[in-house]
Write a structure and sequence with these properties.
The protein is of the alpha+beta class. It folds into three domains: about 200 residues, Triger factor/SurA peptide-binding fold (Orthogonal Bundle), CATH 1.10.4030; about 100 residues, Chitinase A, domain 3; about 100 residues, Roll (Chitinase A, domain 3). The chain is built from 14 helices and twelve strands. A four-stranded antiparallel beta sheet has the order 2-1-11-12. Helix 3 crosses helix 6, helix 4 packs across helix 6 and helix 7 crosses helix 14. The longest helix is centred in the last third of the chain and has 32 residues. The relative contact order is 0.15.
Length: about 500
């Protein structure tokens, strides 16, 4: 499916993996008496470097792990998060490196490549959401002690993960009209019957959306784990909770022991409108103030310990600011407030050719050029879309219906907006592949009711996409050959 209004990047920033060639861990024979040249010394050093993990056919060496662990240590110190013991730090970093390598390999398989254009667009988005220029963003990043090139490498990974999620996960999440109706009804009841409070709420603030910032410590429970193993992992979670309640730094415990992808950011999950969190998290923290910690919360992923970082109103002052904040990333912006909304909608259709290892960018672009030439000679757009398009709309002749601004990915929307009615675009590239777009008609409409439904659909999507992406990563890991030399229990050797 082409539509993807959700450009959210919920995953926390991860460190860049620089993967090397496969080297044996054996010790070489004694060197001759003559002093070896620089290249020989480098080769020998790599030879004895040792292996930290093997991911399918790719090796992560101990040298690479030590380099990334040192970078992680510096970042923890920058965020004033207690640094775990070296063995725990290396285990956490290696798990993150393995996940990153799996994502890199899958992106390569799907033909997903993050270009400089993608990176520039991401920087502009982050700057706009922080209401600053990209130049000011760079100043703020460097002032915080982060090297700008390192930040760009991390952001490139964020964009790649986002593109992977859009390709592999977004289209598997379906929000029905009945679910939207039920959500809006629930929201209406909350507005009509607000929670009692000891202080009156000013009328101007009554309709402001509530925001909630959370961090977590996660103990993952493998799918299909026997009851004894589940109980063992619950005891582990209870032990971590006892440490936190005894005064241990929450972020430090998360960095050392959490299985969540955001562990080395102190477990920070981010801040969003309260409706954007899973209901399970909202209920577990509804009576907590900023700085307080929940009990054990069990989900399909395992056992969570949640800490409220912020609680307040969008447009107002939060109850508290998080003690540990990672650098700006592609986080989802807060939803705009309701009100009349006159919107220009576009009725469009398209043909999509996806890229992959078999269908390169060059081949896909060339095929699109051929199809456009056939359209110029009078062939039917609908017929060619039914025959050649690889989008779910192919049976409908590529018809996307009426599109509202923000409902498609930026590259598609920008090209569509530049077209006149009945005009056909040049081949357009997005993270989904290459498109030919035709605008059929345009209209201006008051979208207030539709926008409320779109907001509700987006909130429901946000609640589900994070867990769905984690499940997808788990499946990717389970299908891979992983030999983790530091933590053999986490290895997977199914290939």
């Amino acid at each position: 499916m082409m539509r993807s209004p959700h450009a959210k990047r919920w995953l926390a920033p991860v460190l860049l993996v620089v993967m090397g060639a496969f080297y044996s861990g054996a010790v070489p024979a004694a060197a001759p008496a003559a002093k070896p040249d620089a290249s020989s010394r480098e080769s020998s050093q790599r030879f004895v470097d040792g292996i930290a993990a093997v991911v399918n056919k790719q090796v992560i060496t101990l040298h690479q792990l030590r380099t990334e662990a040192e970078a992680a240590r510096k970042e923890l110190e920058r965020q004033r998060i207690p640094v775990p013991p070296q063995d725990a730090l290396q285990r956490q970093v290696l798990q993150r490196m393995i996940t990153d390598e799996l994502e890199r390999q899958e992106a390569e398989r799907l033909g997903i490549r993050v270009t400089d254009e993608h990176l520039d667009r991401a920087l502009e988005t982050i700057a706009q959401r922080n209401r600053i220029t990209t130049a000011k963003l760079r100043q703020e990043i460097e002032r915080s002690g982060i090297n700008w090139s390192d930040y760009l490498k991390t952001l490139r990974q964020d964009v790649r993960s986002d593109m992977l999620r859009q390709r592999a996960v977004d289209n598997t999440i379906t929000i029905s009209d009945a679910e939207v109706d039920a959500f809006l009804k629930t929201q209406g009841q909350r507005t009509a019957n607000p929670q009692p409070s000891s202080a009156p709420v000013p009328a101007a603030q009554q309709n402001r959306p509530q925001i909630l910032g959370l961090a977590q410590i996660l103990v993952v429970v493998p799918e299909g784990a026997p009851a004894a193993r589940v109980q063992e992992l619950r005891k582990k979670a209870e032990g971590l909770l006892a440490r936190v309640r005894s005064g241990a730094d929450f972020a430090g415990v998360a960095a050392a022991s959490s299985d969540g992808p955001e562990a080395l950011e102190g477990g920070v999950l981010g801040t969003r409108p309260i409706e954007g969190w899973p209901d399970l998290f909202v209920k577990a923290t509804q009576d907590l103030q900023a700085g307080q910690v929940s009990g054990i919360v069990q989900s399909g992923n395992g056992f969570h310990i949640l800490k409220v970082l912020t609680r307040g109103e969008r447009g107002g002052q939060p109850a508290s600011a998080p003690a540990h904040a990672p650098p700006p990333t592609l986080a989802q912006p807060a939803l705009p407030e309701q009100g009349p909304m006159m919107v220009t909608q576009t009725h469009a259709r398209h043909i999509l050719i996806k890229t992959s290892k078999v269908m390169s960018d060059e081949k896909a672009q060339a095929r699109m050029a051929q199809l456009r030439e056939r359209l110029a000679h009078g062939e039917s757009f609908e017929t060619l879309a039914k025959r050649y398009s690889e989008d779910a709309t192919a049976p409908q002749g590529g018809d996307l219906g009426w599109l509202t601004p923000g409902e498609t990915v930026p590259a598609f929307e920008q090209a569509m907006n530049e077209l006149e009615v009945n005009q056909i675009s040049q081949p357009v590239k997005s993270q989904f592949g290459w498109h030919l777009i035709q605008v059929l008609e345009r209209r201006t409409k008051n979208m207030e009711n539709e926008f409320r439904r779109m907001q509700a659909r987006q909130i429901l999507f946000e609640q589900r996409v994070g867990p769905a992406f984690e499940d997808w990563l788990g499946q990717l890991r389970g299908q891979a050959y992983i030999d983790n030399r530091l933590d053999p229990e986490s290895s997977s050797r199914r290939r």
